[in-house]
Amino acid sequence: MKHFWLTAFLGGTIAALVAGAVLHLAGHPEAGDACWMAGTVVAVPPAAWWVISALRARQLGVDAIAVLALVGTLAVQQYAAGAVIAVMLATGRALEDYAMRRAGRDLTALYERAPRSAHRYGDGGPHVVPVGEVRRGDLLLVPPGELVPVDGVVERATAVLDESALTGESLPVEYGEGQSVRSGVVNAGHAFDLRATGTVEESTYTGVVRLARETEAGTAPVVRLADRFAAWFLPATLLIAGLAWALSGEPVRAVAVLVVATPCPLLLAAPAAIASGMSRTARHGVVVKGGAALETLGRARTLVLDKTGTLTEGRPEVVDAVAAGEYTSADVLGLAAAVDQMSSHVLAAAIVRAARRRGVELPAAREVRERAGVGTTGVVDGRKVSVGKAPPGLSTPWMAAARARAALDSAMTVWVCVDDDVAGVILLRDAVRADAARTLRRLRTAGIERVVMLTGDRAEVAESVAGILGIDRVLAERSPAEKVVGVREEAERAVTVMVGDGINDAPALAAAQVGVAMGARGSAASAQAADVVLTADRLDRLADAMDVARRTRRIAVQSAGVGIGMSLVAMVVAALGWLPPVAGAFLQEGIDVAVIVNALRALRPVQGTRLRVDEATGELLQRFDQEHAGLRPVLDLLRETADALDRPDPDSLALLQRAYRLLTEEVLPHEQEEDTRLYPALSRLLGDPEATVTMSRAHAEIIRLTNRLGAHLRLAHDHGPIPEQLDDLRACLYGLHAVLTLHFAQEEEAYFSLTGGEPA
């Protein structure tokens, strides 16, 4: 309705101005003046209403000058000037409405996700009832894939729950009988029974919804850029107009001052620049819901980020398959993936995905059964294979060491057993995004002074991610309510941006001055609660948006400042009687055109903090990035071979020979081609021939250790390496594993993350 009214207002004022001009040219000046007067009169009530609304909010904006100018032109019968002012006023408001129209924070997805029904036991079985009818003590059935309707305790079976919507934890969490679970989480396993401990009004999820509504209602609106200028421009205008009238005794001079002071550069330039900036961000895959959000983003100094799905990929990935006894890591991964192929569990999907990516052949599995909270079993090549939790009562020194390693790596363990004996363990972890570190560096360059991680995940996991990314402060194990408190604490210190992707982040996004949602894979609730939505699943789009926001705000301030400066000069000229109101109106029109043209520069591409990659270099980066994925199994083989040296035999010799062959036939050619093709291109791109020296030094170390491994193979006997070689062989293999792992990570973060950045 408001948009329709503003469109009509703009159309009416333009029509009055054009009609008056046509009638004057046709020799009907009285009728033309009547049209101009009508256009002026039409503009007075809305302008006066905007001033009254501002006063109610204890603000006095630049609209007050426009009202005085409109009334003044009517009083001294300068109708043409009044009509021009009316058009400029309507145009400014229409532009601002266009830039702000999408700024409403609609949290309907959060509300719509709330449980509507529950399966309550009664009359011999479960029956679907409205969730509002559930009472404390009721016994409920929670089917697979459905939301837990109310808070309760597990009555029977094991509950495997996806709690990412509330806590941000990407891995499913198991709850045994008698343990408490919260509403709003998803049953990721088999059906289980739940004893309600409260009604829907008392449930955790309802509290999240209520908190989001209260937070949204309590968030203060951002003051318009134009109104901030008015703090000094309005008094200056009134002073000059008053002096002109008092010293000359001619009220027309005061009206002329008001006409040229009409703040069209403020009313037009800032909205035009911000609307252009919003168009620019859209080309980067960033939707900004309002001009106020873009303007505030350009002033941000503190960045608060969720962990899961924002700084990390948001899904578990296999980081290692550790073999025990006579098995290899490929055996362990292959057996696990064979029985997990039929499972829909998120960990099973990660294991199958890793096996296929590493080219592991999957044997056929029969009699596959899955037990919620325990794992999957099947028969592979006549042997019983179980994947999941370790068998009860089974504990060995090797398993204790594997658990300790998992704890150090903040990884989840999936045990693989063959005929009830442990064959190995698979470690899974939510990996840090490849573009996260570079994005944070770009954001600091763009003006972010403080980076905070705010997550519901465990403290040790959060600290490990923060250490990699150089984050200033970590707030871990925070509930949605505590997240809001954390954001508000940061917002009191500086303008704060909050980035998240889960439903649990929606209240915190609404609490920040600017909420940013990872919209590509994040929840609809977080996307609708946020002011800015990243439509691509890339964190570096936030840095692109920050670059655009800062440049846009700089252009808006520059355009408004230059326009005001020109207006001040014109005001002095008008006060001296050298500029009548009509001429002043057209001069003001010229100033408007100048500042708007300058404001539209925000439409142009922005260099910002992004490093532009030419097409040829981009193709090289993508190629070598893909080769890294193919070389990952070599890293696993190096560690497996080093571990196998504890039992020197012909099998360990075969592993050594295979590792050396892969190093010389696949890894070294890859590294050597990087030195000859990729690094020279990167040196030209970075403008520094020394930029890749440290990477080339890593290549030299990889070659040295590979040659050392070859020398050991030549000294080894047919039945394996001699005992005197073992210590140095282990050091050589572990050294290769460490250097290659670090080198790959450095290249992926520093170089390969440059690809896919700039949209076509």
UniProtKB/TrEMBL annotation:
Keyword Metal-binding: yes
Compartments, record wording: Cell membrane
Coiled coil ranges: none
Sorted UniProt keywords: ATP-binding, Cell membrane, Membrane, Metal-binding, Nucleotide-binding, Translocase, Transmembrane, Transmembrane helix
Main location: membrane
Membrane topology: Multi-pass membrane protein
Annotated TM spans: 6-27, 34-52, 64-92, 229-248, 254-274, 555-579
CDD domains from the UniProt entry: Hr-like
GO cellular component: plasma membrane
Domain named Hemerythrin-like: residues: 621-753
MF (Gene Ontology): ATP binding; ATP hydrolysis activity; ATPase-coupled monoatomic cation transmembrane transporter activity; cadmium ion transmembrane transporter activity; metal ion binding
UniProt record similarity statement: Belongs to the cation transport ATPase (P-type) (TC 3.A.3) family. Type IB subfamily.
Name recorded for this polypeptide: ATPase P
